[in-house]
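agent> Task received from the user: take the single chain below, predict its 3D structure, and emit structure tokens. No templates, no multimer pairing.
agent> Plan: (1) validate residues, (2) run structure prediction, (3) serialize to tokens, (4) report one or two observations.
agent> Step 1 OK, no nonstandard residues flagged.
tool_call: predict_structure(input=
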Amino acid sequence: MRDRRTHAAPSHPKRTRRGVAACAALLAAGVAVVTAGCGPTHGISQDAAGPVADAVSSGSASPSASVSASDLPSASDTSAATADPSTAPAASGTPTPTGGVPSTRTPTSGTPTPGSPTATVPGGPVIPVIGHTASGGRSVALTFDDGPGPFTGQILDVLAQYHVQATFCEIGRQAAADPAMVKRIVAAGHRLCDHTVDHPQPMHTLPHDKQVSEIDAAGAMITNAAGDGTRIGWFRAPGGDFTAENKQIAAQAGMKSLGWSVDTRDWSRPGTPAILAAVQQELKPGGVILMHDGGGDRSQTVAALKQLIPALTAQGYTFDFPAG
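)
tool_result: status=success, residues=324
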């Protein structure tokens, strides 16, 4: 799952925010960092970590804090996480567009979430939003949005180091601009997801034919970049703005709708410790983690990934693709 407020690099507000109380509880438990949560922002710059970070900025949070196996979900928690990402707290505000294409859209009010568990178009089927892994159990799926970008190669290097595969939800125009990177993703055994042509937000306000174009044309652009025969299994709505309409469009194109169950909020660059803390707080077995390889400076994401993968492995997690 461009920053029109500050510079050309996009921001990625797909997320709901954790309350200050939750962060206080985390600090009380001995964790030196917090996560800003999962909520879309409304008029907040890409660099802003949100009121949660502000609330503890004068405290003892350490920017050098790291995550260990003991910091992550207990090995005794073996129930599969099969709930859709809509079980997360409701979002507030409006997400901002991402991707490499400038936008002139302005924020509007609304509360998009990663999607409802089920939704229908009159006369159409019930279409779920996936927020769990294919195998369930003590597995986890890593997903990266808004690439390919300048940090995609570094993320691929880390994944290769630990022999982990992931899913990349790509912006159509960016895939078309860097076909070599898309081919590298596929050659390494990773999978692709359609994240629209240019990440329009809010997507549900577009006319039906424009929504069809955003999904179908992105699929064609990503496939052309990756090479003939490449299959795109999922669609992820910009900002988690899933509706019955766009889910049905994706289904007609042969794609499942992919949400998430863990939002690292790395798009806001809250600091590597905060990214790791979000996983610590939210991950359940079978979960889908949302991160970003595009849309701006992703050095914090790369640094977090280097700690996260070995810590999850030590906790007994295996890495899988999302269901569908």
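agent> Step 4: summary for the user.
The chain has one domain: 15-102+117-319.
agent> Done.
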